[in-house]
Specification:
By secondary structure, the protein is mainly alpha-helical. It has one domain: Arc Repressor Mutant, subunit A. The chain has four helices and two strands; from the N terminus they run αααββα. Strands 1-2 form a two-stranded antiparallel sheet. β1 and β2 form a beta hairpin. The longest helix has 15 residues. 21% of the residues are buried.
């Protein structure tokens, strides 16, 4: 069932720039957000996001996918 939430979660993270902010918006744990994103990236065989300690930015592929 989570596969139907992966793309909306990706869009939310792209808009917010942080996993924790997206998790708050969806009222779920940040770990779930991270798992959804990892699964989506695995399904697409591409890295969509560049993760740092303080924020997340879109990779070139992520910009194209968005």
């Amino acid at each position: 069932m989570d596969q139907f939430k992966q793309i909306p979660t990706f869009v939310e993270v792209a808009a917010k720039g942080r996993l924790s902010d997206a998790a708050r918006a969806e009222v779920i744990a940040p770990a779930i957000i991270g798992r959804r994103l990892e699964t989506l990236e695995e399904r697409l065989s591409v890295k969509l996001l560049q993760r740092t300690i303080s924020k997340i930015v879109l990779a070139n592929e992520g910009e194209a996918f968005l």
